[in-house]
Write a structure and sequence with these properties.
The protein is of the alpha/beta class and about 625 residues long. Helices cover about 40% and strands about 15% of the residues. It is built from 19 helices and 15 strands. Helix 8 runs antiparallel to helix 10, helix 17 packs antiparallel against helix 18 and helix 17 packs across helix 19. The longest helix has 27 residues.
């Protein structure tokens, strides 16, 4: 099993670690009203595990984006705000691959040694988050397994084996099913779970419901958001629910198939990352509605308020051509009726009809609706990109004869080329150029559903003809339950808090030394001012993971600054000397003062993107 790819790569616990810092970098405990930096607390397997790279260093700030709050009480059955919260997040690696994380955040008692060292009030609680981490987009099985782990931990009946033994068995033994061939069955204590993925000949695996997207936005707003994403605008989603930010972000990325989003993708920004909204290059980001953005420039940003079905932007988004727009809107409305189409009428009647339609829709929307919605958008691409293969020309820098394509479309539709602003912008996007490059890949071209759909349409066949007519029943792979040595039948393991994983002797000694240092300092100088962590010698007390997370934030910060400066440099007038400008001087300073070369490589990226955009 060691060489087999697994669904669950890591189980991680994040929250309040032995080194406490406020969000602004101040070390130590500063009262329950302060928010604190989340940290890695536990994980399985340990980072030295060879099968997968370690979890990304920014994981704690992503799974607890608002930070860690300290409370005087835990779960209160009469207070919904104290209930555990389950939500997914998606992280993007440097090569564009995604990491899928299922999270449950809850209030958990603070460890006694931390309470004693930092003189935190006794019986205090703090935010904690348990996570399953995977490169496979199996959202449902990740969530089901995590919820079962959580329920087992806090069930009065307890579990039959130590909790971390159950976790280690699941992470180490559940393989990733072969697409379209396997169904993996495994158990967590007495709960049976299954996992399977669709055949490669089908639409890409999307283990999410598209219902939240069509419930939050009416049809016109959905098409407006789709167009903005397709044209690679700066997209900022707002919601007071983390789950909604992730699901809508993932859903819209699947609806632009076969195009792939090529730019910054952060479905949930941590609170202190709000300045990233100023980045001048395309991005898709999600931000909790409670985070203040009044200090950020929103010019050109497409702000999508998922709570109020509202989209605002200072720049025009060119409309989809009338024929394709009419098709797209009509087909979506036919699919939604009688499910969630009533949200369109909420603009007229904000009374009970809208609420009722959403409640009843939840009973009827299913996986078939998800599939049909994705197929509608694929059919849209088949229409708007009709005949595109005839204009692929690898002798051209972009690999595509855009002018000839637009002229052909103009003749067919009897519309002047000048009226095709949306299509003109689309075929200049990085997403479209990336698609053309993938068309030259033999394996990618074999499973190109867009080409198959255009060919099937030309032959007068149903769109469903592009999918396999028969799919064999999957082979059942059953993962045997674990047998724990020394575990006695009938013996139950019960917990009042989420237990810590067994620490190595080295880890235990490090924890004790950190807390001893904190405890000694607080006794010797109880009124000494807190130390701000801002780099230099003071930053040396950061753990390797915290330094890596700080570096990730620094890299993004430098790149955002460089992109803005570079664009302003390009806009200088003909009479201005660029070498004596403020922009040039600041760029030079960023590069010269950066020993790691982030600024230099970032500036090269700016130039490369500019060259690419003007070819």
């Amino acid at each position: 099993m060691a060489s087999t790819s697994r669904i669950f790569e890591y189980f991680v616990v994040c929250g309040l670690g032995p080194e406490i810092r406020a969000l602004d970098g101040l070390k130590g405990f500063h009262g329950a009203e302060e928010m604190y930096m989340p940290a890695f607390i536990d994980q399985f397997p340990h980072s030295g595990h060879a099968l997968y790279p370690p979890p990304p260093p920014q994981l704690p700030t992503c799974v607890l984006p608002a930070g860690v709050r300290i409370y005087s009480s835990g779960l209160d059955a009469n207070d919904v705000s104290t209930y555990p919260r389950s939500y997914p997040i998606v992280l993007t690696e440097g090569d564009g691959s995604k990491i899928y994380v299922s999270c449950i955040a809850f209030r958990d008692p603070i460890c006694e040694d931390i309470i004693e060292a930092y003189q935190i009030p006794v019986n205090s609680f703090a935010d904690k988050c348990i996570c399953f981490v995977s490169h496979s987009p199996c959202f449902q099985v990740l969530r089901d397994a995590l919820e079962e782990i959580f329920v087992l931990c806090f069930s009065p009946a307890g579990c039959s084996k130590p909790l971390w033994d159950i976790i280690s068995h699941v992470v180490s033994n559940v393989p990733l099913p072969t697409p379209g061939k396997d169904r993996v069955l495994f158990a967590i204590d007495n709960c049976l779970l299954s996992a399977e993925t669709p055949p490669k000949e089908w639409l890409p695996h999307a283990d999410i419901s598209f219902q939240p997207l069509v419930q939050c936005l009416d049809v016109d707003k959905l098409i407006q958001l789709f167009t903005a994403v397709l044209l690679e605008r700066r997209i900022l989603l707002r919601s007071n629910k983390y789950t909604l930010l992730t699901l809508v972000s993932e859903a819209i990325c699947h609806l632009i198939y076969p195009i792939r989003w090529q730019h910054v993708y952060i479905p949930i920004i941590f609170s202190s990352g709000v300045d990233y909204i100023d980045a001048p290059t395309p991005y898709m980001m999600g931000l909790h509605s409670g985070v203040d953005t009044s200090t950020v420039t929103m010019d050109g940003v497409v702000v999508v308020d998922l709570e109020y079905n509202r989209i605002t932007t200072t720049e025009d988004i060119p409309p989809i051509p009338e024929s394709e727009h009419s098709f797209l809107r009509g087909e979506i409305l036919k699919l939604l009726q009688p499910n969630v189409v009533a949200i369109d009428y909420m603009k007229i009647n904000l009374g009970s009809m809208g609420d009722y339609s959403l409640r009843t829709a939840a009973k009827s929307w299913g996986q078939d609706h998800d599939f049909q919605l994705r197929l509608i958008f694929l059919r849209f691409f088949a229409q708007i990109m009709s005949g595109y293969r005839n204009f692929i020309d690898n002798a051209l820098p972009t690999g595509f004869n855009a002018q000839a394509f637009l002229k052909k479309r103009s003749r067919v539709t009897n519309q002047p080329v000048e009226s095709m602003s949306m299509i003109m912008q689309f075929i200049e996007t990085q997403g479209f150029l990336d698609y053309l490059e993938r068309c030259n890949n033999a394996e990618e071209f074999t499973n190109n559903l867009l080409d198959k759909l255009q060919d099937a349409t030309g032959r007068g066949q149903s769109p469903l003809a592009i999918f396999p007519s028969h799919v064999a029943d999957p082979e059942i792979i059953t993962i045997a339950d674990s047998e724990i040595e020394g575990s006695e039948p009938g013996n139950r393991h019960c917990y009042k808090s989420f237990p810590a994983n067994a620490r190595t002797e080295e880890q235990e000694e490090k924890r004790k030394s950190i807390l001893a240092l904190v405890g000694g300092a607080s006794k010797q100088v109880p009124s000494s001012p807190a130390v701000r962590i801002s780099g230099g010698p003071k930053a040396e007390s950061l753990s390797p993971r915290e330094r890596a997370a700080e570096r990730e934030r620094m890299v993004l910060d430098i790149k955002v600054k460089l992109q803005g400066l570079w664009l302003r440099l390009l806009r200088l007038g003909a009479t201005e000397d660029p070498l004596s400008s403020f922009e040039y001087g600041t760029i030079l300073a960023l590069i010269e003062s950066d020993a790691e070369g982030i600024g230099g490589s970032g500036f090269v990226e700016c130039i490369r993107e500019h060259i690419h955009s003007v070819i």
